[in-house]
Amino acid sequence: MVIKLIILVFLSMNERILEKLNILADAAKYDVSCSSSGSKRKNESRGLGTTGNGICHAYTEDGRCVSLLKILLTNHCIFECAYCINRKSNDIKRAAFTVQEVVDITINFYRRNYIEGLFLSSGIFKDADTTMERLVLIAKKLRSEQNFNGYIHLKTIPGASDELMKQAAQYADRLSVNIEMPSEQSLKLLAPEKNHQDMMNPMEYLKNGIIQYKEEKKTFKKTPLFAPAGQSTQMVIGATADTDLQVLKTANHLYKKMHLKRVYYSGYVPISNDNRLPAIGTPVPIIRENRLYQADWLFRFYQFNMNEIVNTTFPQLDLDIDPKLGWALRNMNMFPVDINKADYHMILRIPGVGVLSAQKIISARKFTRLGWEHLQKIGIAKTRAKYFIVCKEIIDTMKDYTVQQIRNQILTLQNSKYEATFSSQMSLF
Amino acid sequence: MQIINYDKTFQGFLSAVFDIYEYRFKNVKFSISDTSLFGETHSVVTSEENASRVWKGLLKYISSISANQLYKCFLSEHKEVEQLLYRYIKYVFDSKAPIDHDYSNEAVLGVWQTAKKVYREKHRMEAFVRFKLTKEKLYYAIVEPDFNVLPLIINHFQKRYADQRWMIYDMKRKYGIHYDLKEVTRVIVNFVDKPSSESTIIHDEKEELYQDLWKNYFNSVNIPSRKNMKLHIQHMPYRYWKYLIEKESNILKR
């Protein structure tokens, strides 16, 4: 009898923790960041864990990378942000982990090679500092009690004190504060209790801390790490009327002025009947989100300036074609580009040529004059690139077509691909 | 035609290249099986010294990164891989120049492309290994990689899991790597039963809980309104599901 009872209690404890994990993982999943790369933490004391280039250990059925245990400490929240599933007035199941529970799950998942580390966020209970303190405590326990060197991403709670931010940066690899909305105006509309300055202050503090760390590192090799994987942030896209120009302008500002490593764009998933927001059933703006990421890539890896991609004349990205092709079609006077002569900067700008292909072209042309056969083997997309290139063979595709014709030809070829994705999207609604 | 027979190790292959130059063989063909029915067969004696002379010779002209790509390419076990590698090596020694970035050459590009596939498989294994904990506190995992990548993942797992005993076993190639808190060794295990019939008897008491937690977690983070199975399968192809705790129960649903 006694034994049976113990088993029962044990089971229900397991069930309770399973339920908690369901609730608190579900509540955290709208945070799209999954990066686990870019940290310099090493496993020097034969402890547990390393960081490196980042590994996606699994992919969800929506095709997103699962690399970290991404959970909320609690989904209790004192705020009332219209776009957020955890807003105070929302009638949902609430739960909270204990510090030790988070530590145990993280370590046991990590040891089984399920994850690269922990991404911990939280609803705001009581006040900013109390919440932040609890998050920092978990990171501290993982580092000092478990000798854990895997990846830790902590969410910065807006309004947290500098002292807590300092500790957070010592234990975590990456910190992020979500600016939530592309403009201050939208934030005021949807999250009236949140204050733009409360988000910028910790970001600014960390930026300065990282600069200082790099300075000190030059003289003291053993300066303790300070948020080695830097900062990131996230904006919700499509919940408000902000244009792509507004979105990318904000992103550009954050990259330049706050030295952010990444800005994430999260297509709004309708979860509320609030009339300030798109109604439930409105499709998630997945293609727009994709175009924003492509534009973001152009700034970070393809040497484009923001104004070349969006500006007051073209405030929205073209949903039908990618922003690089869009730019090329607006600037036909820059083409065709001679693959065997042009500099790297210009080769990067050819539609259908990626960063790796551009590097390969530069290496390979030292040995021989490149023709189509080489280019295709190197991996460029001929269907797009052929309108913009001159190589060993003479091609006449370019001069015979108008911009509109090129656009249509490329669109016909890519349509089939998109239709397939679209129909699977639509069938859900 | 000169048929070359070697022991299917990388050192053996390099020794074979040494012999080709030593005996000035022309028109060489690497035999597929250990024995060949055709007459002109040269059997290579694997020699550490000869292999290292070829390797050092290569390093005179190409970078160590490129040389490592040759090794990765070899691990692909592709049918014609020795021919491809030999064409590459011959191109290096014929031109006596750093041609390792000449992607206009068929062999250089071919080696790069194959090495990339092997690298991708290595990376997949670093991602898809799922350890299970036994009562004896051994974390073990079973895999069936497309290519022979266990030698390439030792370093990663040894560094990451420095404080736990682990074993990763390649069911296809019937060998595994085992770490005993000091070093990694190659092991062969005679499974009494099929490993799929493993029961809770051998597992740590908490193992099932953490597997359940992981499966639950995996299902909770999905956003159904963004479902995109094509992308999901592209990243996690069916052939890996068998050993993925979070996917194995879906195999029947296909």
Q: Helix tally of chain B?
A: 8
Radius of gyration of chain A, CA atoms, in whole angstroms = 25 Å
CATH architecture of the largest domain in chain A: Alpha-Beta Barrel
Silhouette of chain B: elongated
Structure description:
- The complex is a heterodimer of chains A (429) and B (254).
- With 429 residues, chain A is an alpha/beta fold.
- Chain A has helices at residues 2-26, 99-111, 128-144, 162-171, 184-190, 196-219, 244-257, 286-301, 306-309, 323-330, 344-347, 355-364, 372-378, 382-385, 397-400, 403-426, and strands spanning 58-59, 65-66, 68-72, 117-121, 151-155, 174-176, 231-237, 262-267, 337-338, 389-390.
- Chain A has 2 domains: 7-235, TIM Barrel (Alpha-Beta Barrel), CATH 3.20.20; 323-421, no CATH class.
- Helices cover 45% and strands 9% of the residues of chain A.
- Chain A has a 6-stranded parallel sheet with strand order 3-4-5-6-7-8.
- The longest helix of chain A has 25 residues, at 2-26.
- The N and C termini of chain A lie far apart (51 Å).
- In chain B, strand 4 (132-133) and strand 5 (138-143) form a beta hairpin.
- The mean pLDDT of chain B is 90.
- By secondary structure, chain B is an alpha/beta fold.
- Chain B folds into 3 domains: 2-119, no CATH class; 129-204, no CATH class; 206-254, no CATH class.
- Chains A and B meet through helix 1, strand 1, strand 2, helix 2 and helix 12 of A and helix 5, strand 4, helix 6, helix 7 and helix 8 of B.
Brief descriptors of the model:
heterodimer, A: 429 residues, alpha/beta, 2 domains, two-stranded antiparallel sheet, 45% helix, globular, disordered C terminus, B: 254 residues
Give the arrangement of secondary structure elements.
The complex is a heterodimer of chains A (429) and B (254).
Chain A: H1 2-26, E1 58-59, E2 65-66, E3 68-72, H2 99-111, E4 117-121, H3 128-144, E5 151-155, H4 162-171, E6 174-176, H5 184-190, H6 196-219, E7 231-237, H7 244-257, E8 262-267, H8 286-301, H9 306-309, H10 323-330, E9 337-338, H11 344-347, H12 355-364, H13 372-378, H14 382-385, E10 389-390, H15 397-400, H16 403-426
Parallel strand pairs in A: 3-4, 4-5, 5-6, 6-7, 7-8, 9-10
Antiparallel strand pairs in A: 1-2
Helix pairs in contact in A: 2-3, 3-4, 4-6, 7-8
Chain B: E1 2-5, H1 10-22, E2 28-30, E3 41-43, H2 48-59, H3 64-74, H4 81-95, H5 106-128, E4 132-133, E5 138-143, H6 150-160, E6 165-170, E7 175-179, E8 184-187, H7 207-220, H8 229-235
Parallel strand pairs in B: 1-2, 1-3, 5-6
Antiparallel strand pairs in B: 4-5, 6-7, 7-8
Helix pairs in contact in B: 1-2, 3-5, 4-5, 5-6
